[in-house]
Design goal:
Length: about 500
């Protein structure tokens, strides 16, 4: 009896254990993804790729003390002649930037991530998601481990492609599993916590990528970052395989409440067959995907360039822990608040409320995002924190919206296709930062593709709201004067023309 009671209590916490497990796995995957941005300078010096520039090599000096700022010198000869009190304070070397870096960070990863993500989304709708997720976790963990062994630039490119293939399954697979485990009133919060793994991994990459290479433990330098993440990842992959079980697939949102406006309410009949094409051609899906792609570009631009940008403009100020605190600490609060607010109002306004929260959060985040690029170190971090609080509400809410307006039969496939488009557009557009920065300046390029795209996405999300349904009308099980109202509703529905997916909005 005691054993049975304990077992039942443990089962009650199982879904939260699953949330924690898949979230930690996602954090590790994103850590491996974004480490290249924080280790790029030291990695470029070792593997010899990307651009060279004049850089400050004396950390005890402040920019105000220098007669000439190193970063403003474009000649190696002049760079090596700059001195202060007879001591050279600049060096000419790899800065971690350039088209080689942008390709490595973006297209090399996204090219595989997006294509395999669609394939895995289709597979997830038909086969055991828990087992597929276990395999995907093992693939990207092994790739992260092997990144610590590379000796050539192209080795790193190939391994990032393999890592992308494994990690591409995390979001569509875990989103489907979590959606089936948690009820509607917790869904946006749960998906926000899970998708925070992106920002958790990205935030952790700042201190790991900045300080672990400087330790040069066992002479491994930047390679230790990948070894450490990979070893922890092996443990998570094992737990995922041994303890994660496939939950029962359930209908949710519009489909689950009967708001799909189809003749599926007729007793004993199933939903009409819906294809992925019917789903993705809906105006609300197209507009939502466009808005998400623009927002994703803004986030990826900052993610790939934040550490390098602040190193370049403030080489005398160590902002590693500040960036970690803002992205992980403030971002975490924003994720939770966004999920709670969205879940709070969804029952009153329907899925439209989630889109409204999404649009307002990105609009509020836009102006301080500009401040984080324009201001000096102190105010840059303050405005970045304010921007991050609102900006990071978006991802969990976005996927709560998506899974609630898509039928069960193509849910994982739709998430995979959605990520394919979003990541191809948003993940590859940051490559334009390099040519634009050489034309108008690095800071100006970051302002356009980071803060500017936040604002554009807010406008597009707001427009998307008008294509969404309002609150779901719940069926009333009432009887008046002995008459069963449900019989009338049933009969009326039977005589309706067969509803199409286009007018049903799924």
């Amino acid at each position: 009896m005691l054993h049975g009671g304990l077992l039942s209590k443990l089962k009650a916490y199982y879904k939260w254990y699953v949330l924690g497990l898949v979230s930690v796995g996602y954090i590790l995957g994103e850590l491996g993804h974004y480490l290249i941005g924080t280790t790029s300078k030291v990695t470029a010096e070792d593997l010899h790729y990307g651009d060279k520039s004049c850089q400050l090599n004396a950390t005890h000096l402040h920019l105000s003390q220098l007669p000439v700022i190193c970063e403003k010198v474009n000649s190696s000869e002049i760079c090596e002649t700059l001195t202060l009190n007879g001591t050279r304070y600049c060096e000419w070397g790899y800065n971690g930037l350039g088209i080689d870096y942008q390709v490595l960070a973006g297209p090399a990863f996204m090219a595989v991530f997006t294509v395999v993500g669609v394939v895995l989304g289709v597979v997830a709708d038909k086969y055991n998601r828990a087992r597929i997720l276990s395999f995907c976790t093992l693939v990207f963990v092994i790739a992260i481990l092997l990144m610590g062994t590379v000796s050539e630039y192209w080795h790193l490119v190939i391994l990032r492609m393999i890592m992308a293939a494994g990690e591409s399954g995390c979001n569509p697979l875990a989103t489907g599993i979590l959606t089936d485990l948690f009820p509607e009133h917790q869904r946006a919060l749960v998906l926000s916590i899970f998708n925070w793994g992106i920002y958790g991994g990205y935030g952790i990459a700042f201190p790991v990528g900045r300080y672990v290479p400087d330790l040069n433990a066992w002479g491994l330098s930047w390679r230790l970052c990948y070894y450490s993440a990979g070893i922890v990842g092996v443990v998570i992959a094992a737990l995922t395989f041994l303890t994660l079980r496939e939950p029962e697939r359930t209908t949710i949102g519009e489909e689950g409440t009967g708001n799909a406006k189809s003749d599926s309410v007729e007793s004993g009949k199933k939903m009409p067959q819906v294809t992925i094409w019917h789903v993705i051609v809906q105006p609300r899906i197209i507009l939502l995907c466009l808005a998400a792609s623009i927002r994703h570009c803004g986030g990826m631009t900052f993610a790939y360039n934040a550490d390098l940008y602040y190193r370049d403009y403030f080489p005398d100020v160590d902002l590693g822990w500040w960036l970690f605190a803002v992205t992980v600490g403030i971002g975490s609060i924003g994720v939770v608040v966004g999920g709670v607010v969205s879940d709070k109002f969804v029952s009153r306004m329907g899925v439209r409320s989630r889109v409204l929260v999404l649009a307002l959060s990105q609009l509020i985040a836009t102006l301080p995002a500009f401040g984080s690029v324009v201001f000096g170190p102190l105010w840059a971090m303050i405005t970045l924190a304010f921007s991050y609080f609102f900006a990071e509400m978006w991802f969990g809410i976005l996927f709560a919206i998506l899974v609630e307006i898509v039928p069960l039969s193509v849910r994982s496939t739709t998430v995979g296709v959605f990520l394919f488009v979003m990541n191809n557009v948003g993940g590859n557009l940051p490559i334009l930062v390099d040519p634009v920065s050489k034309a108008i300046g690095y800071r100006e390029a970051i302002m356009i593709f980071y803060a500017g795209f936040y604002g554009i996405s807010a406008i597009l999300f707001f427009l998307t709201m008008f294509f969404m349904d309002g609150p779901v009308e719940k069926e009333e099980d009432t009887k008046t004067d002995g008459q069963d109202n449900r019989a009338y509703i049933h009969d009326e529905t039977r005589h309706r023309p067969t509803a199409t997916v286009q007018n049903a909005r799924l």
